[in-house]
Amino acid sequence: xxxxxxxxxxxxxxxSIESEAQLLDVASxxxxxxxxxxxxxxxxxxxxxxxxQGFKEDCFPWxxxxxxxxxxxxxxxxxxxxxxxxxQDKVDVFQVGSRNMYNYxxxxxxxxxxxxxxxxxxxxxxxxxxxxxxxxxxxxxxxxIILCERGIRTFETSTRNTLDLNSVAYLKxxxxxxxxxxxxxxxxxxxxxxxxxxxxxxAGADGLLVxxxxxxxxxxxxxxxxxxxxxxxxxxxxxxxxxxxxxxxxNNSEExxxxxxxxxxxxxxxTNSSHEIRI
Length: 279
Ligand code: PEP
Ligand code: MN
Fold this sequence. Notes:
By secondary structure, the protein is of the alpha/beta class. It has a single domain, classed as Alpha-Beta Barrel (TIM Barrel). It has eleven helices and nine strands. The chain has helices at 20-33, 60-70, 84-87, 104-110, 127-138, 165-174, 183-187, 193-203, 229-245, 253-259, 265-270, and strands at 6-13, 37-39, 74-77, 93-96, 117-120, 145-149, 178-181, 207-211, 248-250. Helix 1 runs parallel beside helix 9 (229-245), helix 4 packs across helix 5 and helix 8 (193-203) runs parallel beside helix 9. It binds phosphoenolpyruvate (PEP) and manganese (II) ion.
């Protein structure tokens, strides 16, 4: 296994999609760095009901424009089974959030789809509970399930969560799942994103999910754990150097699409002509 040239994925973007310009800035950083895909929240699961819940359908025109201009894939969270039809042709890879890892009705519904799914670890879930949740996603045949370690709640309060890299090494050793790491939620601290990203590569992860915002100070959610575009480019450069040590290479956006079964944008637009955008 060590000698095989393996692909690594870096997915980056804002916690919440806030505007076309914001999404386009991060999309440019992804393309310039040669990394893999865009992330961005449409529906947000916030601990407080009075916190910003995401721009929901208002994001759709921004998403259409940015995807048409850049051809990047979008990873975004689906928070409710009733959103499947709404999000199906906007979002290329569904994310199931930490707070929904135990939502078995949602997992069963997503199991019918022909779309890759990133399953975040519940912040109080054991690795075995997380694996069982992934089996729900596979239960009606969906073969493209990726696990994402995003930190767990421990007695430690210096950081928002404790990023459990044990789970990454354990899952790579004992299961066939692809395993990504989210160092933004895993630490809650911007300056810890880079060291923990590099540690995730060393632990055997297959990818990173990083929060990036053009102006983290003014982000509507999770700015304190988001990199700006310049720091993101710097992270990707260092990640590439470390990846060579493990005989791995970074997937660009086209390689990401092949690996994670993303339909081409042409089909997406053709089946949804009301949202067609010409450039
Ligand atoms: C997110 O990715 O923005 C997010 C809400 O993550 P989690 O579900 O891990 O808290
Ligand atoms: Mn977030």
